[in-house]
Specification:
Blueprint (H helix, E strand, L loop, with lengths): L3 E4 L6 E2 L1 H11 L9 H6 L5 H11 L6 H17 L4 E2 L1 H12 L3 E5 L4 H13 L4 E3 L12 H10 L6 E5 L2 H9 L3 E5 L13 E3 L2 H9 L4
Parallel strand pairs: 1-4, 1-6, 4-5, 6-7, 7-8
Antiparallel strand pairs: 2-3
Helix pairs in contact: 1-4, 3-4, 5-9
Length: 215
């Protein structure tokens, strides 16, 4: 019996990758680093400062946490000053299904509050029963803590929760939390998402799967 339905944010709730990558392209050349699209996609789910470290490492440069956080802050400012990403309407359909079936919902992400409010607004965030964002846990994805924190706060059993992800770190986090994980190929090909329990091509396929379920 499904008790919880949890969503990652970037690539699952919002079609945001290109906007984040555009912002990285504005920030990293100042460090002499050319941003790598695949590095961003593979590290999605981690805090932005850790993505900054991964991008710099790919470019042959190691940076300390303090400098990485400055880069991440600059990137996020550019992100929030640009065009607002599209939100996948099917996610809100899924939230209505969950509410109708007594299933608790959560947004579980490495993004910060400012980015979430920029894209979803306070009203959009309020459509989830719970929001777990950067700062709400000590150890982020791929550790299980973000998803386990959501389950604990919603008083649901982890093994009765379904997670919707789009990147390897999030899939590992969900699986380590003992949850069923569905991966959507919104930013990566299926071959890079094979640790998920189920891989689906898009949000419509997820809705088809969900509407066959009973809580």
């Amino acid at each position: 019996m499904m008790q919880g339905l949890f969503f990652d944010f970037d690539g699952v709730v919002a079609r945001s990758f290109e906007y984040h990558f555009h912002a990285w392209r504005q920030v990293l050349p100042m460090m002499g680093v050319a941003p790598d699209s695949l590095v961003v996609r593979l590290n999605e789910g981690a805090p932005a400062w850790k993505i900054a470290q991964a991008l710099c490492r790919k470019g042959g440069m190691e940076i300390e946490e303090e400098e990485a956080k400055k880069l991440a802050a600059a990137k996020n400012e550019i992100f929030r000053a640009g065009q607002k990403p599209e939100v996948y309407a099917e996610v809100f359909t899924a939230l209505e299904w969950a509410r109708h079936n007594g299933v608790k919902t959560a947004l579980v992400t490495g993004s910060n509050q400012e980015n979430l409010v920029y894209v979803l607004g306070e009203e959009g965030l309020a459509r989830f029963d719970l929001v777990i964002r950067e700062g709400d846990y000590q150890h982020g994805k791929p550790k299980p803590e973000p998803y386990l924190t959501a389950a604990e706060r919603l008083a649901v059993v982890p093994r009765e929760c379904v997670v919707v992800e789009n990147a390897p770190l999030g899939i590992v986090s969900a699986k380590n939390a003992g949850m069923y994980c569905i991966a959507l190929t919104t930013t990566l090909q299926a071959e890079l998402l094979e640790s998920a329990d189920l891989i689906l091509p898009n949000h419509l396929a997820f809705l088809d799967w969900l509407q066959q379920k009973k809580s």
